[in-house]
Amino acid sequence: MYSLPKLPYAYGALAPHISEEQLKLHYEKHHQAYVDGANAMVQKLEDARKASADVDMKSMLKALSFNVAGHVLHSLFWENLTPDGGGEPKGKLGESIAKDFGSFARFRSEFTQAALSVEGSGWAALSCCQTLGRLVIQQVEKHNVNVVPSMPVLMVLDVFEHAYYIDYRNARARFIDAFWNVVNWDAVEKRFAASVNS
Question: Which top CATH class is 20-79?
């Protein structure tokens, strides 16, 4: 069964950038809903198999994909936030960002634009294209549209309104600006190293 991961910080630790109320609601209500949805879909599929019953596979698998992807992306999101975050990445990650985007400032601008312009609800993601050997920015609509399976995700930003509406109302741009103050570059660096060595 899927389950909520333990947060690596207290609910109020990311304030003032993400308030305790906002984080608690996002984690306990919204992320939990994806966990519950994923577990329900797995159970329905198992029950149908045991009963040799027909199911609407398209609908079931779409719901399973949406909920599992929501759970996975949220789990990554919590890990790439920290009260001691922000600034610029160092080491190999920092070097690769400078090489692939021209500068950290250019990367931040492109990532911000991806987060601002994703259609509907979704995510901005920094991924590693192992075929090209370079970093790429992706937009993920909903949780599971436009995902490229062969590109490990290094960093995500949730821009569903549930991620920021208590703190920023409908001002997505202000939330994105705040995000840069709590990015956990150490966690992103670890994912980057793992993707390069896999």
Answer: mainly alpha
In 3D space, the residue among 89, 75, 85, 70 whose CA is nearest the CA of residue 13 turns out to be 85
Q: Is the peptide bond before 16 cis (omega within 30 degrees of 0)?
A: yes
Our measurement of the distance from residue 173's CA atom to the centroid of its chain's CA atoms, rounded to an integer in Å, reads 17
Our separate counts of H helices and E strands in the chain read 8, 3
Q: At what angle do helices 172-179 and 104-117 cross, to 10 degrees?
A: 150
Q: Compute CA distances 113 → 71, 107, 168, 172, 174, whole Å.
A: 24, 10, 18, 11, 13
| pLDDT tens figures, 66-99 | 999 999 999 999 999 999 999 999 999 999 999 9
150 with 130: CB under 8 angstroms?
yes
Instruction: Kindly report whether the global pTM for this prediction surpasses the value 0.85.
Output: yes
**DSSP-derived pairing of the beta strands 153-158 and 122-129:** antiparallel
Domain residue extents for the chain: 20-79, 91-197
Q: Domain 91-197 belongs to what topology?
A: minor pseudopilin epsh fold (3.55.40)
List, in order, residues 6 or more apart from 146 with CB less than 8 Å away: 138, 139, 140
C-alpha–C-alpha distance, residues 103 and 179, integer Å: 19
The C-alpha atoms of residue 8 and residue 81 are separated, in whole angstroms, by 9
**CA-to-CA dists, residue 15 to 27, 88, 105, 155, 178, angstroms:** 15, 20, 24, 20, 10
> What is the spatial distance between Cα 57 and Cα 65, in angstroms, rounded to a whole number?
12
